[in-house]
Amino acid sequence: MLRKKTNGVARRPQRTSILSEVANASVDRRAFLRGSGLAIGGLAAVAATGGTVTQATAATAATGDVKRVKSVCTHCSVGCTVEAEVQGGVWIGQEPGWDSPFNLGAHCAKGASVREHAHGERRLKYPMKKVGGEWQRISWEQAINEIGDQMMSIRDSSGPDSVYWLGSAKHSNEQAYLFRKFAAYWGTNNVDHQARICHSTTVAGVANTWGYGAMTNSYNDIHKSRAIFIIGGNPAEAHPVSLQHVLKAKEQNNAPLIVCDPRFTRTAAHADEYVRFRPGSDVALVWGLLWHIFENGWEDRDFIRSRVWGMDEIRTEVANWTPDEVERVTGVPGSQLERVARTLANNRPGTVIWCMGGTQHTNGNNNTRAYCILQLALGNMGTAGGGTNIFRGHDNVQGATDLGVLADTLPGYYGLTAGSWAHWARVWEEDLDWLKGRFATMQGKDGKDKAMMNLTGIPVSRWIDGVLEAKENLEQPDNTRAMVFWGHAPNSQTRLKEMKTAMEKLDLLVVVDPYPTVSAILHDRTDNTYLLPASTQFETYGSVTASNRSIQWRDKVVEPLFESLPDHIIMHKFATKFGFADRLFRNIEVNGEEPLIEDLTREFNRGMWTVGYTGQSPERLKMHMENQHTFDRTTLRANGGPADGDYYGMPWPCWGTPEMNHPGSANLYDTSLPVAKGGLPFRARYGVERNGENLLAEGSYTVGSEIEDGYPEFTMQMLIDLGWDSDLTPYERRMIEYVAGYIDQRPETDTDLGEQSQTGPYPSDFAEQIGGVNWKTDLSGGIQRVAIAHGCAPYGNAKARCVVWTFPDPVPVHREPLYTNRRDLVEDYPTYEDKTFWRVPTMYASIQKNDFSKDYPIILTSGRLVEYEGGGDETRSNPWLAELQQNMFVEINPRDANNLGVRDGADVWVEGPEGGKVKVMAMVTPRVGEGVAFMPFHFGGHFEGEDLRSKYPDGADPIVLGESTNTAQTYGYDSVTQMQETKATLCKIMPA
Ligand code: SF4
Fold first, then answer.
1. Distance between CA atoms of 465 and 972, rounded to whole angstroms?
2. Residue 80, ligand 1, Cβ within 6 A
3. How far apart are CA 617 and CA 551, in angstroms?
4. Strands 985-991 and 907-911
């Protein structure tokens, strides 16, 4: 594929389908879907080869006016444009967006069948509740009233933290923002979403290395890579359309593709160099590469000197990782790693790509930081073709993370400190004392009262412990008593046996989803269980953030089907029931029961200064979507047209107000561009000095910067000291004074300087407050605007840091998984001591000290399939996709299979050391190495050999059911973020 060199612009009339040439007939969607799943690992219809969903199906079916509506695929984070064909309000056909710079007319099997996702006959059609073990249809009014009454009763007796609001990576940005705000108004930080269990270790590790916890470049920018290093990722299945960008670099630049994975994946099948390594030994592998890089002097010394802090401590650690030791721990021969290191050194800039294979570990934050350090050593950061291209999972997991559907922060990564709440209370124009009153307080072990509003909540990975743990062991007033699963498939989480128990113990279980999900059937509850039908994103509209931080606007394709409602309307219903709707929507127009989406966008535009979600107004986002064809396919920059100079979707940070017209930042930390045009240094986030050493950049700065060296983050005091505060407009100055508490009246945008306002020194009792207003808290955007006008980054200019002194392992180190069969390594590389954090006790050493390997000798790992997404309910309910993959299976190496007496296709039991077991089909294949087994994680509906189909509401059971790998998966959580361990546990396999 991509053999033919083109200018990258797909021209439909000229395309020739290879498949159709072979068949001498047009390829219908059914054939395409089958081919995309079975033939080429899900990447189909790349622009250069054609062969995709043709317009024929819809065009021939449609005879009247057909409206074309642009939306975005709701499955993965690539962000492929879907062009829906709608006639008389009915969605009759779809095509991939040919103008989209992301997909260039391509879709994978999932994207090509989203119409059936929306029109799905197996969706939840109306609200239901369980009465005496039977599902009953009820009205929305009854549902909201009964659920609301029970929640308020729980709130009264146990406090607001006993209701857990689990949100979703499927929300639009506006819904995600509203969801987090809603939880704040309810009075809890027990709110989280899928990012916790897919990339929380990325966000924490990467943000603590250089500033922002996100993909630094883009799928498109990979076109410029001279080497591609993928570790713990399988984009051919998980992000199929992204592979066209990878393969373009491979073909166009002759860029070597190196794939490191314990399993020979469909991505590995494209690799020039495949590195098979032992699950859970990523840090050792990366240090093994760095050992050769340092040994041969291949590191970029200039880059390290000016832009990196702490590399000497890395050198010290890496010195321990001789080729022999690396081979002992990872299984990879030194000669292979020497070759890979040489390849990376000789082919710069190279990109590093990772996914959940790297993140889902007890030491996942160490892995993500090690990958970053590899790129820093090679000098591959802040440059086109380089960067860390971290492929996020769900379509809006990046946006839901940015908008704060998380237990440890308010929107925009502001955290939960008093200052953070004060900032958002100002944005919301809310009484801060009223907000404080919504939260519980609790006496800490030191006898002092603790405000729960400032403490991280229970992460979704641990919600079951919030239910099951003894109350006195929790750092919150009472156990979790009510769970709301809003767009979340529980089978994507480990310890399903315990989850079943936890679900049964809850007072109240509420599922809000287009599909019932495994939450509806895993347990044996008979009452107080509700299913509320949510609309898909095709039945509403709003913005969504792709993995590369670009924001796209979806238009509404069809009106909500059945009795389903969009998430923001359901939130409005609950807010009304709880009596805070007037406050929640104070500055948001509400039409009937529907909050105006554009007003929600504008509200977060007014508060998200930290990550630059401020410049992307609804109007600019819609304009980008309408003019997709004007954006360059590689740089993402508009070449002429109404968006001239903007990057597609204004990837954040898009600084200042929309009026400032910042283009967005396509490649983070690129100093070759002025900040006003998308350039940036590393962020100054950790102070200016450490142990007497300078943490700021040295002699490195963005083009056009008036400060030609490192500098701290911008504050009003810094503007005053530089004499730049005179550049502020009257409104900006007044707003800064308002934020500082110097004036009480919130200024209007056309304000003049009032009598009270100052242009000179402020009275001493206010000087500190005014000086302390900074680029994150200034609601006018003036500090950002003035800093950028002088060529500076609002967040400062620092070095990236290799040593995170606030983390359990300041220098990333290898630690053996909790369940390991390499007992010889436990002494040298032990796990952590048990500890309590995120409100729950967490075990490490107390598990690892036991040797389970005699009874459970095989390493168990898990991952994705191209046909399904996440917990899989919506995709397994889709007839097109269900046909492609009908059986849950376990991959077993032929040698293991023969030793176990297991034949290909036979049923086997896979049992984990915590007792959970699954009955699945054996797939005997050398894809996995000897001693390693792999299971996909999208299945559900069977439990320990039992088919639970009869427990679904009539007509809402997915077409394909199967065992969840997570029934056999075990305990284990990252030491910083509570990410679950799904990639390296143990199991035994027996013929069934
Ligand atoms: Fe594109 Fe991902 Fe949707 Fe496939 S699942 S069409 S790669 S967005």
1. 13
2. yes
3. 10
4. antiparallel
Strand 542-545, strand 985-991: pairing: unpaired
Secondary structure class of 512 (helix, strand, coil): strand
Nearest protein CA to atom 1 of ligand 1, as residue: 80
Measure the CA–CA gap between 972 and 989, rounded to whole angstroms: 21
Backbone angles phi, psi at 961, to 5 degrees: -115, 165
For residue 108 and ligand 1, the question of a CB distance below 6 A is answered with yes
**88 alpha carbon, distance to own chain's centre:** 36
Distance separating alpha carbons of residues 408 and 615, to the nearest angstrom: 25
Average pLDDT of the residues in 173-186: 98
107 ligand 1 Cβ < 6 A: yes
Instruction: Verify cis geometry, omega within 30 degrees of 0, for the bond prior to 618.
Output: no
Per the model's pLDDT, the better-predicted residue between 747 and 5 turns out to be 747
Amino acid 117: pLDDT? 86
Residue 51 has pLDDT above 70, yes or no: no
Q: Residue 78 Cα, ligand 1 centroid: separation in angstroms? A: 6
Residue nearest to atom 2 of ligand 1 (CA): 76
Which tokens is 218 given?
Answer: 């883009």
pLDDT category of residue 52 using cuts at 50, 70 and 90: very low
| Closest to 808 in 3D by CA, of 828, 781, 835, 786 | 835
Length, in residues, of the chain: 992
C-alpha neighbours within 13 Å on the C-beta side of residue 677: 14
Cis before 653? omega within 30: yes
Could you tell me if the CB of 394 is within 6 A of ligand 1?
A: no
Name which of 151, 123, 980 is nearest 483 in CA terms.
151
pLDDT above 70 covers a percentage of the chain that reads 92
For residue 122, give both structure tokens: 């197996």
Choose which residue among 32, 110, 114 to substitute to test ligand 1 binding: the one with the highest number of ligand atoms within 8 A of its C-beta. 110
Q: 377 near 250, Cβ under 8 Å?
A: no
Measure the CA angle with vertex 599, ends 596 and 604; round to 5°.
Answer: 130
The DSSP output letter for 92 is E
Two tokens at 312? 């000497």
- Name the residue among 100, 94, 97 with its Cα closest to residue 112: 94
- Residues 42/866, Cβ–Cβ less than 8 Å: yes
On whether the CB atoms of residues 101 and 546 are closer than 8 A, the answer is no
- Farthest CA pair distance, the chain: 88
Q: Grade residue 536 by pLDDT with cuts at 50, 70 and 90.
A: very high
- Residues 414, 415, 418, CA angle at the centre, nearest 5°? 95
pLDDT tens digits, one per residue of 231-243: 999 999 999 999 9
Q: What is the pLDDT of residues 877-899, one digit of tens each?
A: 999 999 999 999 999 999 999 99
Whether ligand 1 lies within 6 angstroms of the CB of 75 is answered as yes
Determine the pLDDT at residue 717. Answer: 96
Q: Indicate the pairing of strand 67-72 with strand 81-87.
A: antiparallel
The two three-digit tokens of residue 228, written as one number? 């591609």
User: How far does residue 79's CA lie from ligand 1's centre (Å)?
Assistant: 7
Task: Tell me which residue has tokens 């979340």.
Answer: 488
**CA-to-CA dists, residue 8 to 53, 101, 243, 349, angstroms:** 19, 9, 14, 21
Other C-beta atoms within 10 Å of 473: how many? Answer: 11
Q: Is 244 in the pocket of ligand 1 (CB under 6 A)?
A: no
762: amino acid identity, one letter: Y
How far apart CA 532 and CA 842 sit, in angstroms, is: 33
Q: Is the CB of 245 under 6 A from ligand 1?
A: no
The 10 Å Cβ neighbour count of residue 623 is 16
Structure tokens at 200: 């929380």
Taking alpha carbons only, the member of 261, 318, 257, 253 closest to residue 292 is 318
pLDDT tens readout for residues 757-800:
556 678 888 889 999 999 999 999 999 999 999 999 999 999 99
Distance CA 802, CA 376 (A): 9
- In ligand 1, which atom is closest to the CA atom of 869? 5
